[in-house]
Amino acid sequence: MSRRTITGFSNPTVKALRALREKKLRKREGRFLAEGLRLLTDARECGRLPELLVMAAGREAHPLLEAIEADVLAAGGDVIETDDAILAKITGKDNPQAVAGVFAEFDTSLDALDRCSAPLFLAAQALRDPGNLGTMLRTADAVGAGGLVLIDDCADPFSVEAVRASMGAIFTVPLAQARWDEFLPWLRGGSGQLVAASLRDAVPYRGAEYAAPCFIMVGNESRGLPEDYEAACDLRVTMPMRGRADSLNAAVAGAVLAYEVLAALG
């Protein structure tokens, strides 16, 4: 463990931390950045500590931050102090928060999910916007979902933008990533109802026959779900559109359905 101060932009550690904003380098290192005391506190409460803690030298004292720092050092991690300008360079944010952490990426295999842990789960196929991904994580946390499954080529859940949008749910919600041809056999290998918002042979989402564990699947923001994916669902539901819009935002649709399923399953 170590505690040190960095004052130069050209420091190799600063360059390595900046590189974590790029997906290719993030995947190579198996590490990701999380910024802000709230996110790091949520992580600590879930038993996850950063391997490296970066703090602004001029920060205000806070007992939660002091607790995180003590735990990181006790676990053999590193603590770095630097100025706001270098912290902004690391996070890519002009007005960065006073603290950021580097975490090891989690196991995101389907086998890490326990389908008996909750009555509902969320799934997203080819979701491209990291803000939507973060919102779905927050929704999953809010409804007590057993996890979020990312199917096919989704935005990277460990990007700075997605982690920030999750408001800490990246640490509280089990997460899995899989291709469709992996996910469907896994789902059919046990209990689980697959539900999608659709216009094809759909029933009203209110009063539909939901069954636990219920996997609510939303599709790509612009294209929706492929037709064969919808055909594989056990239940297709439709939500009324009273205005001129012909569809809801993918993350919003997932939230509406999640609360309806939660109410239906009690």
Describe the structure.
The protein has 266 residues and is α/β, with parallel strands linked by helices. It folds into 2 domains: 2-104, 2-Layer Sandwich (60s Ribosomal Protein L30, Chain: A), CATH 3.30.1330; 110-265, 3-Layer(aba) Sandwich (Alpha/beta knot). Helices cover 37% and strands 21% of the residues. The protein has helices spanning 12-19, 23-29, 37-45, 63-74, 84-91, 130-142, 160-166, 169-172, 180-188, 227-231, 250-265; strands at 2-5, 31-35, 52-56, 78-82, 99-104, 120-125, 148-151, 175-178, 193-197, 203-204, 214-218, 235-238. A 7-stranded parallel beta sheet has the order 8-7-6-11-9-12-10, sandwiched between helices. It has a 5-stranded mixed beta sheet with strand order 1-4-3-5-2. The protein starts with a strand and ends with a helix. The model has no long low-confidence stretch (mean pLDDT 91).
The major β-sheet equals: 7 strands, parallel
* Biggest β-sheet: strands ordered side by side in the sheet: 8-7-6-11-9-12-10
E-strand count: 12
Count of individual helical segments: 11
Globular, elongated, flat, extended or rod-shaped: what is the shape?
A: elongated
Quick gist of this model?
By secondary structure, the protein is of the alpha/beta class. It has helices at 12-19, 23-29, 37-45, 63-74, 84-91, 130-142, 160-166, 169-172, 180-188, 227-231, 250-265, and strands at residues 2-5, 31-35, 52-56, 78-82, 99-104, 120-125, 148-151, 175-178, 193-197, 203-204, 214-218, 235-238.
